[in-house]
């Protein structure tokens, strides 16, 4: 039986980045992956959707070409070509990760891990193919999968998951998106831009319910303006299939028809291993971990979506890099006593939604900050007053900053508008460094840039924004 120091089950952004970091530390590890390296993120999530977002963005700009004094291109949209480009981007990125593994000589077993037991002090992982591998440390990075609503089956023909919708070879005439969270809103935005008639049905009172309330409201307004029908506070009770369309019965007594349905009502952890004479604690399907990603079993860690903390690729990666550090400290006594890696503060992980307009946030929402701090200040700056956004013809949205009133320390930033997901890194840095509005005022921001909207929203915390009306 092959023995190695660390086995990682799952080669998504959590698993593969951890493997590379361990190899940088000269720690032997082996990755067991049943599909392809990159996991959901590279193959069926972050990357293919962002390739579609870019095509949609370009398409919408091309339709607007005459307003810019540019020649209009009246050729019809070629969705097969859009897909081809998306698939090529995925292929390039995944094969890049495979190359990194080969270059670093990180062994990968292509197969499904099915069970874990213990022999002496080692964990033994068995695969479906009957192979066994032994290790001192085990990292569980098996990710998550789409869930559905009771009584509604995702058939991937008419009722699609986020994976199924990425496999469509032609655009439907109409699409009902069940669930107005991040994934549902991104697909709604992409397909509506391509000209599909899109309806969103969300059970909660607002879209992207984890975001600041103001952002949710503005996104719903923007979507409605862009022709997307948005129903919030309404559940889907059943879906029946007609000859060429689906009928959705809604909890408000109404119904709607669509050619395809996207189920985007959340993702459940993939907790698919059999633990033989071992008790791995879980909570509502997610593997329980402490601040150091340690599970209920000694030397067994879990990272990423399977822990259901904040189901984002960069959460998975960061958790994994912290685990790599912990294992390195444990395996290299010469490094002792080294300070343990800082625990991950989940509030300060940036969250991005690649809709049009794009949204991104870090830190507390206004409602959360009002509960946590005795008093807060709000700063705001609209992109309508930002020169670069005007030049880009993309002025929908704003930057909102939230600071503690007593210290002026920034505790939340919310952006809706052009390049929000790129800009939010500035908020993440300011918050991680406990910066105040005065600290941000000491920085020079280049002109003309979208970042100046951040500068002005920071200045606005002390009513010092120059261009705000
Ligand atoms: P995964 O990426 O799910 O990887 C888990 C891997 O484990 C898979 O490759 C799977 O095949 C393998 N596996 C499972 N069980 C076994 C087993 N028993 N044996 C062997 N292998 C196994 N996040 C962002 O940060 N930004 C985005 O823009 C973004 N967009 C998204 C869009 C969509 C449509 C979706 C669905 C998700 C998106 N996400 C995004 C979320 C992101 O994809 C996940 O948070 C991320 O992939 C989680 O990484 P992971 O390593 O925990 O798991």
Task: Describe the protein.
This protein is an alpha/beta fold. Helices cover 32% and strands 25% of the residues. The protein has 13 helices and 25 strands. It has helices at 13-24, 39-44, 46-63, 79-104, 162-166, 182-193, 213-225, 313-331, 366-372, 387-392, 420-432, 437-441, 451-459, and strands at residues 2-9, 29-33, 108-110, 113-119, 122-127, 132-140, 144-146, 159-160, 174-178, 197-202, 229-232, 236-241, 246-250, 255-258, 260-263, 267-269, 274-275, 282-283, 286-287, 300-302, 351-353, 359-363, 376-382, 398-404, 410-416. Strand 13 and strand 14 (255-258) form a beta hairpin. It is globular, with a radius of gyration of 24 Å. The protein starts with a strand and ends in a 10-residue tail after the last helix. The mean pLDDT is 96. Flavin-adenine dinucleotide is lined by residues 9-15, 32-35, 39-41, 45-46, 49, 112-113, 141-144, 162, 183, 270, 272, 304-305, 311-314, 316. Flavin-adenine dinucleotide binds at residues 9-15, 32-35, 39-41, 45-46, 49, 112-113, 141-144, 162, 183, 270, 272, 304-305, 311-314, 316.
Task: Give structural attributes.
alpha/beta; binds flavin-adenine dinucleotide; five-stranded parallel sheet; single chain
Overall mean confidence score, pLDDT: 96
Low-pLDDT residue spans: none
Q: Could you estimate the helical fraction of the residues in percent?
A: 25-40%
The end-to-end span amounts to 71 Å
Largest sheet: 8 strands, mixed
Instruction: State the total count of DSSP E strands.
Output: 25
Bound molecules: flavin-adenine dinucleotide
């Amino acid at each position: 039986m092959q023995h190695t120091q660390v086995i990682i089950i799952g080669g998504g952004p959590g698993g593969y980045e951890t493997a590379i970091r361990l190899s940088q530390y000269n720690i032997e590890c082996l990755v067991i992956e049943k599909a392809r390296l990159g996991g959901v993120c590279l193959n069926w999530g972050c990357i293919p959707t962002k390739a579609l977002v870019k095509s949609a963005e370009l398409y919408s700009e091309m339709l607007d070409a005459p307003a810019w004094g540019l020649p209009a291109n009246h050729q019809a949209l070629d969705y097969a070509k859009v897909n081809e480009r998306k698939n090529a981007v995925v292929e390039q990125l995944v094969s890049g990760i495979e190359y990194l593994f080969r270059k670093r000589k990180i062994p990968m077993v292509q197969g499904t891990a099915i069970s874990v037991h213990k022999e002496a002090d080692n964990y033994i992982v068995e695969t479906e193919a009957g192979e066994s591998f032994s290790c001192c440390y085990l990292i569980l990075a098996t990710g998550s999968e789409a869930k559905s609503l009771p009584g509604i089956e995702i058939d991937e023909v008419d009722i699609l998951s986020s994976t199924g919708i990425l496999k469509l070879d032609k655009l439907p005439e109409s699409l009902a998106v069940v669930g107005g969270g991040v994934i549902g809103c991104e697909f709604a935005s992409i397909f509506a831009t391509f000209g599909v008639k899109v309806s969103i049905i969300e059970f909660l009172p607002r879209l992207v319910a984890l975001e600041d309330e103001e952002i949710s409201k503005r996104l719903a307004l923007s979507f409605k303006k862009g022709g997307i029908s948005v129903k919030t506070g309404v559940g889907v009770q059943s879906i029946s299939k007609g000859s060429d369309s689906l009928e959705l019965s809604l909890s408000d007594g109404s119904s709607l028809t669509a050619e395809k349905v996207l189920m985007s009502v959340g993702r459940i952890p993939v907790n698919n291993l059999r633990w033989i004479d071992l008790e791995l604690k879980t909570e509502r399907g997610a593997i329980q971990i402490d601040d150091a990603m340690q599970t209920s079993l000694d030397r067994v860690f879990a990272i990423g979506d399977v822990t259901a903390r904040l189901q984002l690729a960069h959460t998975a990666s960061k958790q994994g890099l912290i685990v790599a550090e912990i294992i390195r400290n444990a395996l290299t006594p010469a490094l002792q006593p080294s300070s343990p890696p800082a625990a991950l503060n989940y509030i300060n992980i940036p969250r991005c939604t690649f809709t049009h307009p794009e949204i991104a946030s870090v830190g507390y929402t206004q409602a959360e900050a009002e509960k946590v701090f005795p008093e807060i200040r709000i700063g705001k700056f609209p992109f309508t007053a930002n020169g670069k956004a005007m030049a880009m013809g993309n002025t929908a949205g704003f930057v909102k900053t939230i600071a503690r009133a007593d210290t002026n320390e920034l505790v939340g930033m919310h952006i809706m508008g052009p390049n929000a997901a790129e800009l939010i890194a500035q908020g993440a840095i300011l918050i991680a460094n406990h910066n105040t509005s005065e600290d941000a005022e000491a920085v020079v921001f280049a002109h003309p840039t979208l970042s100046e909207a951040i500068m002005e929203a920071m200045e606005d915390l002390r009513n010092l924004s120059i261009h705000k009306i």
